[in-house]
Amino acid sequence: MIAVHSWAELSVFLAFFALVTVMGFIASGWKRADNHAKLDEWGLGGRQFGVWITWFLVGGDFYTAYTVIAVPALVYAVGAYGFFALPYTIIVYPFIFVVMPKLWKLAHSKGYITAADVVHGTYNNRFLELAVALTGIVATMPYIALQLVGMKAVLSAMGLQGELPIILAFLILAVYTYSAGLRAPALIAFVKDLMIYVVVIVAVVIVPMKLGGYGAVFSAADAAFQVKGGNTGLILKDAQMLPYATLALGSALAAFMYPHTLTGIFAARSANTIRSNAVLLPAYTVLLGLIALLGYMAHAAGVKVSSPTDVVPVLFQTLFPGWFSGFAFAAIAIGALVPAAVMSIGASNLFTRNVWKAYVNPAVTEAGEAQVAKIASLVVKVGALACIVFLPTKFAIDLQLLGGLWILQTFPALVFSLFTRWFRAPALLLGWLVGIGWGTVTAFSDGLVPVHKLVFGGDTYAIYVGLLAFAANVVVAVIANLVLSAVSPRPVSSQA
Amino acid sequence: MRWLLILPFIGLLWVPFYNFMEPQLFGFPFFYWYQLLWVPLTSLITYVAWKAGTEE
User: Transmembrane segments in this chain: where (chain B) (predicted)?
Assistant: First the structure.
């Protein structure tokens, strides 16, 4: 079970992991208000995070461990196509700038904690609220599971095989999230991001120096793709351009519909905190672009792996002394804990507010809400852990693809009302149903690949299936709304 | 100035603009440095749209 790769590596790793664990427990007292037994406090950190904390929190929870492992893995395997994460994480910011301050203001003035709160408050429709809440909870589970995939990759590279180390790491996470709520990941994100920055800056400077410069890195990768053939290479094949652009757009629209990213937004102190972050957060995207290049550096370093998720760990072990790879692996593993904690908090906020309070106990007190959410966060984490222990990894990754498709279908219900009150709840609900239904069936019948081929006038167009489902969703919602307006005109008084 | 915010979408989602190897910069093919360049550019555009806007 345990065949330690390097004791120096493991010691450094464990030391940093211990440091972060201690911080997690300290966090429960950090910036604490008097009424801790309130969901605002536990689940949104008291809505008082300023520009810098929000920057670390959202950055730490949007750029996950899976990004650090999976993006370079895809780039290693196929080349340019794997870079769609780069345009995706650029265009997401103008979108955040336009939409999220509006959403924050609404949530802040009405005391909303979740996306489904917003939807219920806007449309006064329990079915639409439930649709948004359940989509959020279900879409988050595989996302948490993927954080574990990232963590597992570094643990097994260090020689810690099997499920026990992951289970231990998750127990620690569960306990400190339970006691400190959103404050724990916010404080840890600070340390984790500094560590990731150090690792990446060292890697992007030292690795090319060892391998003969970026020119050499790109030509080594080019040579590898020439041998490999197929849809690989340093630039996109013609047929890959549309999938590349639609994956980037669809992912950008979906990214901030997730409970964990919205939690980061709602926890901000003001609308201007969010605007500042729309300007400052792209710094992480530079990092992401450079991390992606690790996939090419692996080719230049002659790294050969059977599973692409091992590319980054093996590259670090090939090029760096044990103590530094231990530091890097600690950064990646802690980088898994931060988003996993925020995700479980976001999902449990949804459960508490929009399932428990709506259907089980409408009379729940504020203290009761916080208690239910804490327990729900444990259940969500155990669920994710079960995914990873009992299901094949491939299945978690496939579910994550579906998760992105699903969460995108909550976009119209959540975002459209910020700009127009034309849509009515039944129309949005029908659109959601068609988007989820058509998207899921199509993704399964395509064998769970992200791109669906449309034949149109003799030509074939390959488009991200989530974006197609979103288009279907919007079209159905518009048509249904037109029909609805014709059948029963809205009373004038509701046009408040 | 809000219309400026559409520029990153056009610049990045119309892939035929930048799907080339040449010209290279510091060893980076065009495809890579062009997209990386849009990161600071988008920050700048967002900042300009914010400060030039009338909201708050």
Answer: 31-50
